[in-house]
Write a structure and sequence with these properties.
Rossmann fold; five-stranded mixed β-sheet; 7 helices; 5 strands
């Protein structure tokens, strides 16, 4: 489920190519208004977007869709170490003030009616290979296409700043995958 049809089209093509189209149902929709009945899913996998709703709110909201003892897996931007440098704290307070420590997110998981099964940090190289290197390439292309566009220039500056912050401070934060099971 996604609210961007082009992403769903890409998924559908991949599912067909991998002979999996009969195993998945693709839906256009919003995470805020999921059109599913209670206790419908054995597992919910929500990667890289729970921050839009908020970590705690997402876990509490989606819990009703899980069957008894169902699982949910989410990734969430998390502090990996305590007391991050001021520059980094200021950056994330502006970009994502909801960022919390792994320990705090584990408390939220427990308080939201789940048992933590495990968690792990997405390796730094994955950020660079899958996100930031392609993003830098795209910014370079867009700078040529939209030169002298003040809004575009501001976007490029913010994007490149985020990449630079990661290069400088990646030991302090990352995407943490949290695997949990609904407690009934």
């Amino acid at each position: 489920m996604d609210n961007h049809q082009s992403f769903l089209d890409e998924l559908e093509k991949k599912a067909i190519d991998d002979n999996l189209s009969g195993n998945i149902e693709i839906k256009l929709g919003s995470m805020f208004k999921m059109p599913f009945s209670a206790e419908r899913f054995d597992i919910i996998w929500f990667e890289g977007a729970i921050y839009i709703m908020g970590f705690e709110e997402g876990l509490r909201s989606w819990r009703r869709f899980l069957k008894p003892n169902g699982y949910i897996v989410v990734s969430e931007l998390s502090w990996l170490k305590d007391f991050p440098p001021e520059e980094l704290r200021e950056f994330w307070n502006k970009e994502y003030p909801g960022i919390k420590s792994i320990a705090r997110n584990l408390e939220i998981i427990e308080n939201s009616g789940y048992q933590e099964i495990g968690h792990f940090t997405l390796p730094e190289h994955v950020w660079m290979e899958s996100l930031y290197t392609p993003m830098e390439k795209r910014v370079t292309e867009l700078k040529i296409k939209y030169k002298n566009n003040p809004k575009a220039e501001e976007f490029y500056k913010e994007t490149l700043n985020e990449i630079q912050m990661f290069r400088k401070y990646s030991e302090w934060y990352g995407y943490e995958f949290y695997i949990m099971q609904k407690i009934d």
